[in-house]
Amino acid sequence: MSYLHISCALIILCSIAAGMIRILSGPTAADRMMAAQLFGTCGVAILLLLAKGMDTIVLLDIALVFALLAALATITFVRRAWHEQSGVPRR
Hints:
The protein has one domain (3-86). By secondary structure, it is mainly alpha-helical. The chain contains three helices and no strands.
């Protein structure tokens, strides 16, 4: 077990706490969405660091799924915001 990888994962976990403050105080939906993207990115980084530190290959697959879900959430948010802004009804 590599303590360097695990300690880096804990440091990244602290940045998620900073993102939680932005979600609670963010004045717009875009601010909140960017903080949610931070959660996705940090989650993937933490999983990759833990996979390397603990020599667990399964965590790599989970990190890949999290990355795909984060991209899908961003696309969904942008489509919804675009349609609400333009006044075009959603399909």
